[in-house]
Amino acid sequence: MASIKKLLIDSLDDLDKAQLKRFRCYLRDDYKFPASGLEEADVLDTVDKMVEREKQEGAVKITLDILKKMNQNQLAEELEKKLKVKKAAVDSKAVDVDYSEFSNTLKKLLKQDYEKILDGNSHQNTYLTDIYTDLYIVKNHTGGVVNEHEVRQMESNRTATEDTSVMCKDIFKVQRDTGRQNRKVLTLGIAGVGKTVSVSKFILDWAEGKENQEIIFIFPLAFRELNLISVNRSLMGLINKKFFGSENQLSSLPKEEGKVMFIFDGLDECRFSLSFKNSEGFTDVTKETSVDVIITNLIEKNLIPSALIWITSRPAAAHLIPPEHIDQVTEIRGFNDDQKEKYFTRNSKPDMSERIISHIKRSRSLHIMCHIPVFCWICLSVLQPLMMTQENLQSIPTTLTGMYIYFLLSQMKQMKAKKQSDNLPQSFEDVVLKLGKLAFTQLQKGNLIFYKEDLEECELYVDDGIVFSGLCTQMFQAEKPVSGRKVFSFVHLSVQEFLAALYVLFICKNRKTNPFPLTLGDKLKRTFKKNSLVDLHKTGIKNALKSKNGHLDLLLRFLMGLSLESNQNELKDLLPSLNITAEDLRQTCEYIKQKIKKSVSSEKSINLFHCLNELNDDSLITEIQEYLNSEDLSGQDLSSGQWSALVFVLLMSEETQEMFEMQKYRRSDEAVIRLLPVIRNTRRAL
Ligand SMILES: Nc1ncnc2c1ncn2[C@@H]1O[C@H](COP(=O)(O)OP(=O)(O)OP(=O)(O)O)[C@@H](O)[C@H]1O
């Protein structure tokens, strides 16, 4: 345990040069320390001088007093907390509690709970160590628009050059270079990128005695579970009930620094408010209170000041924790290119993995999406059976929509077999359309997690076993009930977006209605005109462009992809005879091009290019490729639409990912601004 002197040094180390100078001035003026020798004193000398003259207790008092005078209240508070912990540790030594038996019981329980996972939510448990592939995790999330759509974030991934990568098992270890240890870490990552898997691996390694053995207790408390606790509990009561089977087993926790760890997975799923401003400074671990008070006070270090805290979250919810309560932010970026290949190699036979990898590399969209582990799992479950049967080679999907259609079809096969054996009343098509309705209505509201009532609004009844008897279990999941209330979600946000698009098309065809919110103008037009597919496309595009965080972007891409005849053929049971004509598609493509030319933001126009890609229209791209092949790349005479096309082509090029020769284009300020998404996405900009 750090000495008092070390605690003082650590505090003053956080002051910059000017602040340290002010600190010394206070010492001189208010505490009459002799000026000689003080002027040039560094942190060590300053602390030495205080302890020499005032002894440890006096030095602490003076330090706290001056820090407060300097308005360094946060530093003063932290120092006070550390001193409290130290005092408690000294006190507890007198009692000398032996926690080893409880620690071993907890390890046994967590080993059982975490050694197997539902891989990508297949209904079979898989050993975590069998599938686990290292992920690319970086220190210091670099900021940016955090509520941007998750797939778009992936595609405009930020530059890798300034990141320091970190292994998940090392996140809480003392850092060799600085000697510091992170106490409170927030790990961000988009849906399906591996946050829960990372946390699980950390816990399993600890429970198996492999890593981080200086920690005595790790208590994983996922927000999904915490949401369901509606009665007041004390922290000790909560821990005892969840981990030791009754309310009164473990009576205290170790007070020494870093011996207890709390892991709060899935902040984005938190359904109660976390109020840090009005926090009451709740310090009693045996007093009952609401769950939000326990969590905020743990994070604020009022409850167990010595505890390590690890919170994971999708980026959009990161703001729920004020930055001053976090020592280190890390970001899980998913698999890098090597890790993607390792994933496929680990999870399929050697000749199969080679074929899968080369297939994915051929399609830029698929290759990009494979940064997300859960998408790798979807690819694996689609491509493996397809590639096993030689004659299917022609029909192996190369577009995003194609991949999801095959995913759906593979589910259909399994479900039909299951339906026969279980004699279930509803058809696959019915269930998928109901899930589609749920997907669409909840996506419009920005919801990714649902409750029983939400399902019932779409005529999906949990109790009649249709959804959970093996039907849909790979697309839709229910969480373990903790106190009777189940939570549901799609296995990945992209699956929700795909089913939503399917539903939109179905509604347009069958009920001749347009499920998107319509503007007044659209409504008026509709009274005079019959509802056409082109109108549906147009309102879809308008709504997606209106969305601030791009929550309809992927739905739009799927909507376009599903409108192609070739894709329709695969889905004739679900979407019979949509009667889409070449003229319809031409009109939609023209409309998209107009929108691109009107210079929407670069992210939006990139998505519109993806839509054109799904519709097999590459005319703008060909135009720009000719320009790229020409000698003069000064970039002066490009129209707005051409600029967008250029950015799209460059983003989709593997070469640009590695290196981008900006100097070829840098003749105008406009070029620099326009090409920003490319610069952000490349590893090396020249
Ligand atoms: N490191 C990994 N190695 C192998 N597979 C992984 C890894 N990480 C994730 N996966 C796969 O991706 C799936 C989703 O991962 P996980 O549940 O950890 O995502 P998440 O980031 O917590 O997503 P969400 O925000 O939706 O909760 C896993 O079930 C697994 O199939």
Automatic annotation (TrEMBL):
Start and end residues of each NACHT domain: 183-317
Gene Ontology MF terms: ATP binding
Source organism, top-level taxon: Eukaryota
Gene Ontology cellular component list: cytoplasm
Alphabetically ordered keywords of this record: ATP-binding, Cytoplasm, Leucine-rich repeat, Nucleotide-binding, Repeat
Protein name from the UniProt record: Nucleotide-binding oligomerization domain-containing protein 2
Pfam families: FISNA, NACHT, NLRC4_HD2, PYRIN, WHD_NOD2
Listed InterPro entries: DAPIN, DEATH-like_dom_sf, NACHT-assoc, NACHT_NTPase, NLR, NLRP_HD2, NOD1/2_WH, P-loop_NTPase
Domain annotation Pyrin: ranges: 1-81
Cell compartment(s), UniProt: Cytoplasm
